[in-house]
Structures are given as C-alpha cells and as structure tokens.
Design goal:
Largest sheet: 10 strands, mixed
CATH class of the largest domain: Alpha Beta
Structural class: alpha+beta
Distance between the termini: 54 Å
Number of domains: 3
Number of strands: 19
Radius of gyration: 23 Å
Strand content: 15-25%
CATH architecture of the largest domain: 2-Layer Sandwich
Shape: globular
CATH topology of the largest domain: D-Amino Acid Oxidase, Chain A, domain 2
Length: about 525
C-alpha cells in the first residue's frame, strides 16, 4: 500500500475551517479523516465575535477582495442556513475625536453595500439623526455623539452549533473523526508528508495532509521540521457578556473606544449583550482566556458608551477569548494588531514555504470558512490528480421535518434557537423514549433528549463538550453554575454513569472551564 493508505485527505484540526474542509471533501466523494486534539469548535471558532460579515473596517486597509469574498459568503450562508445566520441591524455612533468623519463612514457603507453579492433583506445603509439614535439606545451617553449611521450585517449566535451542523454533514458522507489526541509531529516518507503521529503513539495517514490547526499551525511546524520558519502572526480578541437592560434594542452599536481608538461594539444576544473586542499581539498558543486587564477595559468602555446602563463587574455573565491565526506578511497600515490582514492563505507544497504532501491553512474568518474550504480541497484534488467539482455552495437537503411534542414555551423556543430544523433529531429520540422529553433539571429549560443526542449522535465525550458546545447552556444567562453537580448527576443518569464517574466528569468540566471561562469556573467551585 502506498503511503497514506486509503484516506484521501487527513485533516488536522477540528475548528470551523477543518470541519468545513471535511464537509467539502466528502461532498466531492473523497475519503476523509479528521484529527482534533480536544473537541470540535474547542478553540478560536468558539471565541469569535459571532458575526457573519463583510468586514466594514477592512475597507480602511483597501482589502476590497476580502470584503467582496466575505459579503459573497455572507449571502450564501444566510440563504443556506437562515436559522443559524440571521440579519442584524447595526448602528454606528460617531463620537467627537473619532478617526473618521460620518461622511467618510457613509461612503464606506455605500461601497460595502455595492460589493454585496446578494442581500435578501432589502435595507439600505443610511444616516440617522442622533436624536433617533438616543431614542433607540436610551442608555447612550448624553453628549459627544455627533452623527449616526445605520446598516445591516449578519450574526451567528452559536458558531459551535454551526460547526456541529457542518460536521454532521461530513460524518453522514463518511468522514471519520479521531478526537481527544494531539498531533505530536508530522510523518514523512521519502521527503513527503504522509501522516501524523498522535500523543498516544498511534500514526494516522493520508494521501494529502491538511494542517488546519489554527493558531497551532506554527507550533506543529516547529515540532515537525528543523528548518521551519513561522508563518503566523497571532492576536488575541476577548469579549464579555452583560445583561441587556430594559429598553435596550435588539440592535448592535458600533463605535471607537474612548481610551485607545479601537473598534468597539455591543451586539444583541438574547436577553444579553455581547461586548468586544480587544486586539492584542499574543504568543502562547495554549493559553487563551480573557485577562483581567481586558475584562476591565471592556467593562469600562461599555459604561463610557452606555453610562445609563451602569454595569458592575459582578454582572458579567461570561468571558470569551479567541486567538486569531493571521498570515504573516499581511500587516496593514500602522503595524498594529488590528492592522494585520484577516485574509487567509492556503499554502501549497509548491509554495516557497510549502512542503511536499502538506497543505497549510493560515488565517481565515468564521465568515469565509466555506470559500476557504473550497480553495483547500481544490488544492488537495490537484495533488491527488483528480478533478472534482465543489458542491458546498448548493442548497441544503434537510430531512423530513419531525415536530417536537408539546412542552413549555421557553423550552421550545430555546430548542428552536439552538438546534434549528435539527430539532427533528431530538423529536425522533423522544418518540422512541418519551421520558427524554422531561427537563434535564427542574428550573432550567434543557430536556433529557439533548444529552442523549449529544453523546450518541454528535461526538460529545464529556460534560464540557455537552454543556459548552452542544446544548450551549454555558453561553446563556441562566443559573447553571450553581447547579453544576446536579447537572452532572442528571447527565450521568441518562448515560448510565455511576456517582463516582459523574463526580470525575464534573471535576474535569470545572478544569475545562478554568481554561476558557475562568469567571464561571470560580462560580461553579464556590457552589460545590
């Protein structure tokens, strides 16, 4: 058997780019294996701003190609998955001392709109009066706002669920998943990359290997090649979630931070607002949680913009952080972290930094995962000597709808928000076992079927997988942290764990929370 075995493409990394590549490849009839060190959507994909957008501020750096590509992908995704990618109304508050005049920003919005591939929502960018803006945002600062603009983009509330939907498509096409094992090094045969050695000593192979490990691309390269030169610039972006005050609209607000002039926003998020973001050069790929300084900065800027809200530190619901793996050499004006280009690069074997048999993914936005995957699989097909057309831009084929049984309205609304049309899968489980309709825990709008579904159909292995990236409980403004142990026991009861196993799983969940949400890890430990 030639090196690579019967796997056409071995994908390393289970973030949105790796999973999108797997989906595209199996749709073309290729055999795929994906290796992920932790869990699907465990890293930066879950720490993003959660927008599907063209990148208005990229116009400042004349990245017109990236804006056009992003707007095209926004249109495709919003039409393919309207339950997941939804329009969001955004306002720009132009304040005294901002780096751009309102007239300049409005011209940018018109250009942004002109670049749009398709926009089915029919609302044009426009200027609005500051009086209208203050009426819309009653907590807005009373002075210093001299102009306002309105436009639309798209939001994906749960990128974790988007990744799961992409993976479910890939798995249905035969993609195999090897989860929970880190790649130690790439394997070579006669100078060509043919596979990877995992941390348990096993070796996995593919005719083509794609390194889609995000901000770990350089770390893997340095472990595998003596002469490896870094190809990434990594920057950290952190966010906080705050409760939505009475009277706050379900619209976003974009401006420039008072303390340092960075782009700053608040976005609607159910009964909360999502506040961000920071943009700081970052070096350690294994450490990414919002720092105390970042949390203080975000809270302070939120109160400067919305002083009527008077947010307190103990009101912060959660923090999130993602590391942007940006292609080195894409530094824009000013050499700041915010000036590094967000355009992705697919490094092929024939490229100056390439290696035979290996394709490396540098950069990439949540918005452009589909087009990035198309480019990567095109490159893989070239190496395989096969001409296979991309099908990922086509309409989705959803199965027959299966309605959920009657249950409390808040539970139904939440299930529709989290799972969209895939609630049919939960309904089928409930039909087989009606007890799965019952609440997972009294007082919380989860049902038992979600745990059964996540662990049997969606590759969940532990409580962190389930609560953080399947049912999305830990991203909601719900009192879950005080009920961590009862939740662990409830899940264990469904899966047949004994109490000792449930306790071990609980402690592992707390350890995982300490990594990506230390604020809630502390809250959980205080209640144990």
């Amino acid at each position: 058997m030639k090196p690579g075995g019967d796997t056409d493409i071995l994908i390393l990394g289970g973030g949105i780019n790796g999973v999108a590549i797997a989906r595209d490849a199996v749709q073309r009839g290729l055999k795929v294996r994906l290796v992920e060190a932790k869990d699907l959507c465990w890293g930066t994909s879950a720490g993003s701003t959660r927008l599907i957008h063209g990148g208005l501020r990229y116009l400042e750096y004349f990245e017109f190609g990236l804006v056009r590509e992003s707007l095209r992908e926004r249109s495709i995704l919003s039409e393919q998955r309207p339950w997941r990618v939804e329009p969001i109304e955004l306002f720009i508050a132009v304040q005294d001392g901002d780096p751009h005049w309102a007239s300049t920003l409005l011209c940018g919005l018109w250009l942004y709109q002109a670049f749009a591939f398709r926009w089915p929502f029919g609302a044009d960018a426009s200027s609005v009066s500051t009086r209208s803006l203050r009426k819309k945002f009653p907590h807005l600062r009373a002075d210093g706002v001299n102009a306002a603009l309105r436009y639309f983009d798209c939001q994906v509330r749960y990128p974790e669920r988007l990744v799961m939907e992409l993976w479910n498509d890939a798995a249905a096409g035969g993609a195999r998943l090897d989860k929970g094992h880190r790649v130690e090094t790439l394997l070579r045969h006669e100078g060509r990359v043919v596979g990877a050695e995992l941390d348990d000593g096993r070796c996995v192979y593919g005719q083509v290997v794609i390194n889609a490990t995000g901000h770990w691309v350089d770390a893997l390269g340095q472990r595998s090649f003596d002469d490896y030169k870094p190809q990434l610039v990594t920057t950290r972006g952190s966010h906080i979630m705050l409760p939505r005050r009475e009277g706050m609209p379900r619209s976003g607000l974009y401006t420039y931070a008072r303390s340092d002039g960075r782009a700053f926003f608040t976005l609607p998020w159910g009964n909360c607002i999502w506040v961000g973001t920071t943009d700081i050069f970052h070096t350690d790929p294994d450490v990414f949680s919002a720092t105390e300084d970042e949390v203080t900065y975000l809270l302070s800027e939120a109160n400067k913009l919305l002083p009527g809200a008077d947010y307190q530190r103990d009101e912060i619901i959660l923090t999130r952080c993602g590391i942007r793996p940006l292609a080195r050499g894409g530094v824009g004006r000013g050499k700041s972290a915010g000036g590094v280009s967000r355009a992705h690069r697919v490094v092929r074997p024939k490229d100056p930094m390439g290696s035979p048999g290996l394709i490396s993914i540098l950069g990439g936005k949540l918005t452009t995962h589909r087009s990035l995957a198309e480019e990567a699989v095109d490159a893989a097909c070239e190496l395989l000597g096969r001409k296979l057309a991309c099908r990922s831009g086509s309409d989705l084929e959803l199965g027959e709808e299966h309605p959920l049984p009657p249950m409390p309205e808040d539970a139904l609304e939440r299930l529709q928000s989290v799972y969209g049309p895939y609630t049919s899968n939960l309904a089928r489980l409930i039909e087989q076992d009606p007890s799965l309709k019952q609440p997972l825990l009294p007082g919380l709008p989860l049902i038992r079927a979600e745990a059964a579904y996540a662990f049997t159909r969606e590759a969940a292995d532990n409580l962190d997988d389930f609560f953080n990236r399947r049912c999305m409980l830990t991203t909601e403004n719900l009192p879950w942290a005080r009920h961590a142990r009862p939740l662990a026991l409830a899940v264990g009861g469904i899966l047949g764990w004994d109490p000792a196993r449930s306790e071990r799983e609980l402690q592992q969940w707390v350890h995982a929370l300490e990594h990506h949400d230390p604020l809630n890890a502390s809250r959980v430990k205080n209640k144990l």
